[in-house]
Amino acid sequence: MRYLAEPFILGALERGRSVEPFLGPAGSPERLGIHWVELQPVRETYEVYLHAALDCEPLTGDLDSLPPLFDSGEEDFGLLLATTNDPLAALTRTLQRLWARGFLRPSRQDS
Questions:
Q1: d(CA 35, CA 63)
Q2: What are phi and psi of 51, to 5 degrees?
Q3: What is the reported pLDDT for 42?
Q4: How does pLDDT run across 24-39, given as a tens digit for each residue?
């Protein structure tokens, strides 16, 4: 997520576009998957979802077409992490939730 500049993310959200940064691998060696987060404008709010999908089609360009990594109904669309009224608050909440779940680590520049 740190590879997307904040102005790019905020600009896309303010124009009504979703942003879906890739977070990396998920699952186990027996059941390989991927994680990504989605920040999307919805009416007057911004929603943040965490997605986990089975990495079964390595050449796919559409992550939404991949089957869920887990067999729970919650993962059919993703796990709602936050809903906010402001794009900056959505980005801040996303980073906080991803940090709490162990997806983000401090870079060498931060230490």
A1: 10
A2: -115, 145
A3: 94
A4: 888 888 888 888 889 9
Which of 77, 84, 79 is CA-nearest to residue 42? 84
Q: Which amino acid is at 68?
A: P
* Length of the chain counted residue by residue: 111
pTM for the complete prediction? 0.77
Q: Which residue numbers in the chain have pLDDT < 70? A: 1-3, 57-64, 71-76, 104-111
Cα(54)–Cα(14) distance, integer angstroms? 31
Pairing of strands 45-54, 31-42: antiparallel
For residues 19 and 31, give the distance between their C-alpha atoms in angstroms, rounded to a whole number: 26
Strands in 79-84's sheet, in edge-to-edge order, are: 22-28, 31-42, 45-54, 79-84
Say whether 94 sits in a helix, a strand or coil.
helix
Q: What are phi and psi of 32, to 5 degrees?
A: -70, 140
